[in-house]
Amino acid sequence: MIGIGSPAFSLEPFDAVAEQISRHFRLWEVLPEGEHRFDLIHERLERGRDSFRLSYQVHAPLSDVNIGSAHEPMRAAALTEIKSTITWCRRLDITLMTLHPGFVQGIAFLDRSKALERTRSSVLELEKFAKDSSVAIALENMPANINATCTSAEELLEVLEGTDMGICFDVGHANTTGNIDSFLRIVRRFTNVHLHNNFGQWDEHRVIDDGTADIAGVVRALKQSYKGNMIIESTDLESGLTSKSRLEALLG
């Protein structure tokens, strides 16, 4: 199924966004921040299944949430936030949550391996918690950035080693690192896909055919081996609709 997600949506009242999205999509990847925190919207979200005929999956909170923090109290706080999100997902019958790996900050710049070690520790803890809650987690590859971890398929698999956790393959992120092909070789691990484009320099979230990523080639590969959802990540609904039309043409 084709869905949509955008951090910009979380700045607007939930019902208004849900009504607009439902005119064009059946699936929304909700970011529970801002106006869309689950403690604020859970009743409206549940009603939206019927009134707007929407299905949901979740992108875990982004703001100040670092599961790879070298400062243990902050990593613990991040885990508390993510576990709270998982608990809400279980309560709301949402079965898939995409999660960002940790990032390099503060003293972790003195030894970047620490951010990866802490991320892996967090992943192991969160996987068990999520399994107990019947929620699947998809760990997302990150774009080229001085703070980023898990920008390559090899590093992402290293963090996931020994787990059943899936991957959220973000095409735009992989385009900034030149790693699209290497990620497509591990399509068996994909449990979510984010589609957007850029010109390889930074994470612009452009319309899917506006950039240097070979989206047509990516879609051909996904059609062969991937059965999950495809989430258009856009800066707004209008550009998301343009991407949807072009993706539908590629899917035939």
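(ticket continues) Second input and output from the same batch:
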Amino acid sequence: MACESWRAKLDTYLDGELPSDQMRAFDHHVRGCLACSSAALALVRRKRSVHDAGKRFTPSPEFRSRIQKSIAARPQRSVGFAWRTASAAFALVLVVGTVYFGTLRSRTDQAFGEVADLHVETLASSSPVDVVSTDRHTVKPWFQGRIPFSFDLPELQNSEFSLLGGRMTYLEQAPGAHLIYQVRKHDISVFIFQEASLRGRLDENASATKKSSFSTETWSRGGLRYFVIGDASTGDIENLARLFKATEG
């Protein structure tokens, strides 16, 4: 019965819309409650299934043509036509620009949302890593032959971070590496994917404005896309990202 109050807030928790103090309390509860962590995992999977199903519809060329013809068939009035045409053209430029940047932001928010789901799903799992090791020389070779690219892991000596292990993961059906680090009892996920395997560009400045309970950072280098995400402080996320960037030469 005690968990009913937690589960009533589960949807809001996964959307990152609870107050920060409640988010921290929920994080702590989910880590220690098998029933709630299982419920969180099931809900994350359902959200991902609905999200994937929603991307299956793409307007056909016939549909686009029909809409364009219906717009072109509308009668035009001569009074102020030139002015309205110029105004419409200007408005169209604004709309196209807004749509482009809105799509870029939406695309980035979508990617961060999916990465956050992967992070939560892993923390809720009874087996968060497939290769358990604090040694980067053990974890890195484990991915060889499992993903179609290679990457480097940072040296953690003299840092506050510890490596817990890694697992394979998928984003937009693209295979990638998921590394899990810990700092002061906070788990941080590092995701690495091939940039070319992901759909569309990402706005790398959008992470600071993403509405989420997690701190995030992303960058692209050497054909790879990196995501660092966790409930640790922004400074810790930036420091771990900096260690990874230092390994990239």
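Agent notes: The two ends are 54 Å apart (CA to CA). The first strand starts at residue 131 and ends at 132. Closing as not reproducible unless the customer responds.
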